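Render RNA polymerase subunit sigma in 3D.
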Amino acid sequence: MSLKGVELQIAIPKTFEAGKMVDQAQQQVLAQQAHANEALKKEVERKQKIVNTSEGMDEISEDEDAGGEYLTGIHKKKKKDQQEKQAQHPFKGNFVDFSG
């Protein structure tokens, strides 16, 4: 495939244009990735701060609440309910051999 002089006048400038377009596309992709990375970092930091502040609020409300006795009663009831759920049934889920 040999190119003539007239064809080279058209082909060479188009290759430069194509190279510029590819370079711009690559730069745009890199910029988008950097922007997405920064947005992700900000989101993670925001979520970390929210979790830390809400955990502190829970500790204060449980310890210094005027209705502390009421809260401890609720906690005892929840623990009792959890223990009942965790109790194992005497024969359910176990294999019993009656053949013998």
